[in-house]
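Thread: Modeling a multi-component assembly for a lab meeting

Hi all, long-time lurker, first post. My supervisor asked me to bring a structural picture of a complex we are working on to next week's group meeting, and I have zero experience with this. I have the sequence lines for every component (263 residues in total). Could someone generate the structure of the whole assembly? Inputs are pasted exactly as I received them:
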Amino acid sequence: MPDPMKIRANQLGDATEVKVLMSHEMETGQRKDAQGKVIPAWFIQSVDVTCAGKTVLTAQWGTAVSKNPFLSFRFKGGNKGDKVVITWVDNRGEKRTDEATVA
Amino acid sequence: MDVIDPTRRKVLAHGASLSLLTLVAAAGWLETSPVRAAAWNAAAFDAHSMDDTVKALHGSTPVASKDVTFVATPDIAENGAVVPVTVVSAVPKTESIAILVEKNPNMLAAVFDIPAGTDPSITTRVKMAQTSNVYALVKADGKYYVASKEIKVTLGGCGG
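Re: Modeling a multi-component assembly
Sure thing. I ran the full set together rather than chain by chain. Output:
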């Protein structure tokens, strides 16, 4: 089971700011191991963020997003206590969902 | 006689092309074909030019716009593996923001779909293989806009 994401969701005026640090190798498929074999690409392909059930961001990623991806964005609304839920799916079909409460 | 022996010329020519391929293979730039999820836009992430990427995103040729800006994005990245990029779009009705790195093996790094109510501003970190222009491609109200910024990289980030 991949490591949990670190999510912070904070109210800033009438908006909510979300910062998330995901745990993922984001292997490009360009590197070789010690034996000279290519390490296959392994990376988050899609990200979905909802707040109180409403989608506030979706993303498609390629191998150029850095290892242990960081993402930050803001959306209007979001009340203290609302749940921000983030899901990612990678190219192996593995997925991870974590949530945080708007503070 | 000062004519290069034709056999030697052939060997030289073949030798040159062979070694180029070897170099390319050694650098790891030859792609394998990874498995991909159905909805993921493989064509866009495979594209090697702005035009091909825009086409694969079903978009139209973007217009340069001063309303798309890079904020707090360094001119020089010490570590090409982790380059912080923030894109802000002041274009009304922004629907999506994409980040492309010109000199990466594949230009498209990420696409963010911005629903109504979400600020058209994204901060993330990308890998850059070498000093390159980074493009922010914005789709707003069905039209496309682009801005670019050169980021110098001292240590390339694709692990090659």
